[in-house]
Amino acid sequence: MSEEIILPKTDLSIDRRGLFTRGARLALSGTAVALLAGIGTGAGIRPVSAAAMSADVDTLNIALGLEHEAIAAYQVGAESGLLTKGVLDVAVGFQSDHKQHRDVLMKTIKQLGGKAVADVKHKFPVEKLKNEVDVLRFALGLEAGAASAYLSTIPGFENRELAKAAASILGVETQHVAILKYVLGDKPVEAPFIM
Question: pTM (2 decimals)?
């Protein structure tokens, strides 16, 4: 199965506002969904020791908590009334990506015999969101944090299929970061390596 990145069919001349207007967003790859859901290779998620499986479930639950937070944050942004139509459309698209991540993570945790963490009430600095740029900077901070968290989890997975799937989600998170930075006028990629 090859990985798919879903992009809209557009011309190549994209300005900052046009990036949002055209709805450029990325979806979780088919391979990652298959790996997490255990259907990609026919073998499913390979068994590891009970302790390792428990540690992997704990790590997946941390990722799930981040996805819950991202979904809630994008809802705050969407309901703020501060986003223009094109920006709102992309924010809702990013939220959809996070919902797909959440759903697959929950299914995988259950498949591994774990219990998925429930969503909690999130405290966001809503009072500091005064305009569209504030909302975008807020989203950027959360996306950058999620990308960093996924990056740190990859080496810790005992099950390598889970590590590959986390890397795929990391790719989506970093693309969200790059798009948000570009629209904000920041340099989308600051360095050739992420540490």
Answer: 0.76
